[in-house]
Amino acid sequence: MAEINTSVVIGNLRMKNPVMPASGAYDYNDDNPGLFPMSELGAIMLKTIHHDVRPGNKSPRIAETPAGMLNAVGIPSIGIHAFVKEEYLKEKYRPLGAPIIVSVSGGTPEAIRTCCEMLDDSEDVAAIELNLSCPNVGTGLQLSSDEKLLHDCVAEARKGTHHTLIAKHSPNVTNIAKMAKISEDSGADAVTVANTYMGMAIDINTKKPFLGNCQGGLSGPAIKPLTLHKVFQVYEAVSIPVIGCGGIMCAEDAIEYILAGASAVQVGAANFVDPLVMPKVIRGIEAYMEKNHFPDIASFRGLAHQ
Ligand SMILES: Cc1cc2nc3c(=O)[nH]c(=O)nc-3n(C[C@H](O)[C@H](O)[C@H](O)COP(=O)(O)O)c2cc1C
Questions:
Q1: Given 3.40.30.10, 2.60.40.1520, 3.20.20.70, 3.40.50.1580, which CATH number is that of 8-301?
Q2: pLDDT tens for residues 56-91?
Q3: Which atom of ligand 1 is nearest to the CA of 272?
């Protein structure tokens, strides 16, 4: 059997395989400790740290849907100042043994830059993902749907850090390829495609919106064909790596994303169904590479564009 190499490089971030959790969709320390060695993951992605202290949204924050889930968690956050002061990275996440990606957000480009500046010195940060796409906070969605605001957010973040910068985009736009190109031109090293799709549920007994926030973001298997298409489009528009995120439930889904052009993938809602899904995705990608005689990820990335 020929050696296979699953490693990928995104900016200065080196991952031993292309699989990581999606932000906010995996709890390393409290809900899932010791299920499998976190060092098996390509990277550890943290839940978004907002610039401000935020309580998050009113409950209910989650609603099940036939093929996924709606969430309106709303980024509860201790704020970037407390996050840095408490040394969470060193104490909670460094021991997990995989490169750490910190997801940050803020209400303005300046607030996002401050988050990046405050993390710039940390040797525990392997990359920063800018959450420019949370549908559940005030300006969340505008950050990656308004062209000027998107440019300003990424450009300010770029001024604030030397770390690898990943812009996470919203799918709730007409032309995500154009928006991803703006991120690239503003200094992003990679783009994540994508966050959740706006949706809602209504309680027919109370006759009111089910979620405390009225609206929420749809994730899970329902969105996979939609986001896969967006990754396919973005791959043709940018030269920087694309990270695919949306409805990945198994290795075959992740492989589809790589064939569409993704350099790496994030697994979100599937973790709630099976907290062991990520190592299964990693093993499944390895088996696919062996079966198809692909020595590395680059040898099948984007092949669907032939
Ligand atoms: C409960 C929950 C919390 C989330 N929190 C965040 C977050 O803090 N930051 C973020 O960028 N995305 C957040 N997301 C979006 C996911 O990272 C991901 O983009 C989305 O769920 C699509 O992937 P999936 O279909 O695999 O779940 C959250 C998703 C869920 C389900």
A1: 3.20.20.70
A2: 999 999 999 999 999 999 889 999 999 999 989 999
A3: 31
- Of all protein residues, the one whose alpha carbon is nearest to atom 5 of ligand 1 is 24
Q: What integer best gives the mean pLDDT of the chain?
A: 95
Cβ contact 165:189 at 8 Å: yes
Ligand 1 pocket member 216 (CB < 6 A): no
Helix (H), strand (E), coil (C) string for 5-65? ECCEEECCEEECCCEEECCCCCCCCCCCCCCCCHHHCCCEECCCEECCCECCCCCCCEEEE
Tens digit of each residue's pLDDT (9 = 90 or more) over 91-106:
999 999 999 999 999 9
Tell me: pLDDT of 157 over 90.
Answer: yes
Residue 191's H or E segment, with its range, is strand 190-193
Whether the per-residue pLDDT at 1 is higher than 60: the answer is no
Protein residue whose Cα sits closest to atom 3 of ligand 1: 24
SS3 of residue 119 by DSSP: helix
Q: What is the pTM of this model?
A: 0.97
Domain boundaries, the chain: 8-301
Give the residue among 198, 143, 136, 195 at the shortest CA–CA distance from 168: 195
Distance CA 195, CA 142 (A): 13
pLDDT tens-digit series, residues 246-261 = 999 999 999 999 999 9
Measured from the Cα of 168, ligand 1's closest atom is: 11
Give the residue whose CA is nearest to atom 30 of ligand 1: 25
Give yes or no for residue 246 CB within 6 A of ligand 1.
Answer: yes
Of ligand 1's atoms, which has the minimum distance to the CA of residue 247? 25
Give residue 140's pLDDT band: very low, low, confident or very high (50, 70, 90): low
The one catalytic residue among 134, 153, 214, 245: 134
